[in-house]
Design a protein that fits this description.
Elements (H helix, E strand, L loop, with lengths): L1 H20 L9 H16 L2 E12 L2 H14 L6 E5 L2 E9 L6 H10 L4 E8 L5
Antiparallel strand pairs: 1-3, 1-4, 2-3
């Protein structure tokens, strides 16, 4: 008898819990929070670059060495689309665009055969160029 009463009570509690769980919950957001979230979304939608990883193949203060490296890269790895920058007094040749450092390891090992000074570096990269 006692076990029957416990079972009935358990069934009633479960049915009440199920009925309560199916009721709707209304959430009202403060206007300040709504404005702040709107600004946050707008800022991140406008941001076209982000910090990501590239492989710096060559750093030199001689423009001819930079041009030689660019030519060699274009001949050996035409799919990489190398680019160079001049941060006085150095010319830097970089390839790739990776979100995670671990993603560039295979390419770095390959490039080090022909360019032993290649190193991973952080850079500002357009979102559309990420590999």
């Amino acid at each position: 008898m006692k076990q029957l009463i416990q079972s009935v009570v358990l069934i009633l509690v479960c049915s009440l819990a199920t009925q309560h769980a199916s009721s709707q919950v209304t959430f009202t957001e403060e206007s300040d929070v709504t404005q702040l979230m709107s600004k946050y979304r707008g800022f991140h939608q406008q941001q076209i670059t982000l910090k990501a990883w590239r492989i710096q193949v060559v750093t030199t203060n001689d423009r001819r060495n930079m041009e030689t490296a660019m030519s060699k890269l274009n001949q050996m790895y035409p799919e990489l689309d190398p680019s160079w920058t001049h941060a006085s007094p150095y010319y830097q040749v970089k390839v790739g665009a990776f979100e995670e450092k671990s993603d560039l390891q295979n390419l770095l090992i390959t490039l080090k055969r022909d360019f032993p000074s290649a190193i991973p570096v952080m850079d500002d990269i357009e979102k559309v160029k990420l590999l």
